[in-house]
From TrEMBL:
Domain (ABC transporter) ranges: 4-237
Lineage, highest ranks first: Bacteria, Bacillati, Actinomycetota, Actinomycetes, Micromonosporales
Entry-linked PANTHER family: SPERMIDINE/PUTRESCINE IMPORT ATP-BINDING PROTEIN POTA, SPERMIDINE_PUTRESCINE IMPORT ATP-BINDING PROTEIN POTA
SMART domains for the chain: AAA
Assigned keywords, A-Z: ATP-binding, Nucleotide-binding, Transport
Molecular function GO labels: ATP binding
Record's protein name: ABC transporter ATP-binding protein
Pfam families: ABC_tran (PF00005), TOBE_2 (PF08402)
Length: 359
């Protein structure tokens, strides 16, 4: 187990003033932690991971493993295990030969190697698969072989780059639970790259949400969900409504805002928000924290339903609340059967769940 530190790490691929792929990233990942880099395509997650692996050297900044500077150390000297999206297995070798590869390179004895391969295969629930050929395995099984191959060398750190992308939805969910179980058992510090926020939320101890090469927020799944730092994080994690509302009062951790035609409401706010009466605040309201009401009930925001989407667990309603608010998405568990597109409706926000975000 080892901790990882990225200090002011940047990566530019060309000298010609193009935007940095990774721009001044600062991260500290604890020993044994499962840490995820999350963000949309092109935000710099893979480049960050590749710098930790040593495949790219940063243009600027430092990377440390357990306090030791590894910024310019060759990948094979870093003692990391890597798992890729496309598995990168050797198709002409058996499962056992694939898993044993890293041990062979390290000149581990045949007996020891065989023992460790069996142990690694058991770890990923593939006991008895050693003599199978790679093409005889399903995608999920191949990904578990890739994981066993990374784990068998007992790396100081596990680096996983979108390892579940090639699996179907059901298998993705099963395999993510598996990966986390295996990582917990092994206690290996892990950095996981994904653009799938549900995956990041389900698996991670902490998440760094990235956009355009920069880290927008670092926090536990609960923190990034309930207290998003920016409008981008609020919208990227789950689904959120970011409302622009006039501030009517403010203190250190609470901001009171005026709702369109519905009085005022208090929203949680991060310390140092700097908002004052008369400013406009951006307030994030999750769809499940908005309740339906009658259009003529007192103190509700009035709007008209423009879309209905049944998802099984809840019904998502899109409600047009007029020029001031635009469209708001509501996730309602119980929707009266008579509500339909075109209907007038009232909305009530849950004050305890509102959160002020930065632009
Ligand atoms: P994805 O989820 O699509 O893999 P990502 O968040 O992992 O995206 P990166 O692959 O890290 O993003 O890319 C970040 C930026 O750096 C992108 O604009 C990309 O075009 C650029 N980039 C990545 N690798 C190279 C390279 N080898 N040479 C030049 N530009 C690169």
């Amino acid at each position: 187990m080892i901790d990882v530190e990225l200090e002011s790490v940047s990566k530019r691929f060309s000298r010609s003033g193009e935007a940095a792929a990774v721009d001044d990233v600062n991260l500290t990942i604890g020993a044994g932690e499962f840490f995820t880099l999350l963000g949309p395509s092109g935000c710099g997650k893979t480049t960050t991971l590749r710098m930790v692996a040593g495949f790219y050297f940063p243009t600027q900044g430092h990377i440390r493993f357990g306090g030791q500077d590894v910024t310019r150390l060759a990948p094979n000297k870093r003692d990391t295990g890597m798992v890729f999206q496309n598995y990168a297995l050797f198709p002409h070798m058996t499962v056992a030969q694939n898993v044993a590869y890293g041990l062979k390179v390290r000149r581990v004895s045949r007996a020891e190697s065989s023992r460790r391969v069996n142990e690694a295969l058991a770890q990923v629930h593939l006991d008895g698969y050693g003599s199978r050929r790679i093409e005889q395995l399903s995608g999920g099984q191949q990904q578990r072989v890739a994981l066993a191959r990374a784990l068998v060398i007992r790396p100081r750190m596990l680096l996983l780059d979108e390892p579940l992308s090639n699996l179907d939805a059901k298998l993705r969910e099963e395999t993510r639970t598996e990966i986390r179980r295996i990582q917990r058992d092994a206690g290996t510090t892990s950095i996981y790259v994904t653009h799938d926020q549900a995956e990041a939320m389900a698996m991670s101890d902490r998440i760094a949400v990235m956009q355009a090469g920069r880290v927008q927020q670092i926090g536990s799944p609960r923190e990034v969900y309930h207290q998003p730092a920016t409008a981008f994080v609020a919208r990227f994690i789950g689904r959120s409504n970011v409302l622009s509302l006039p501030v009517t009062a403010a203190d250190t951790t609470t901001v009171e805002v005026a709702l369109p035609g519905a009085g005022t409401i208090a929203s949680g706010a991060p310390e140092g928000h700097g908002l004052r009466t008369g400013d406009t605040a951006l307030v994030s309201a999750r769809p499940e924290h908005i309740a339906l009401a009658g259009p003529d009930d007192p103190g509700v925001i009035r709007g008209r339903v423009t879309a209905l989407e049944f998802t099984g667990m809840a019904t998502h309603l899109t409600v047009d609340i007029g020029a001031e608010g635009g469209e708001v998405t509501v996730a309602a568990v119980d929707v009266p059967g008579r509500v339909d597109v075109g209907d007038r409706i009232g909305l009530r926000l849950t004050a305890e769940r509102l959160w002020v975000v930065r632009p």
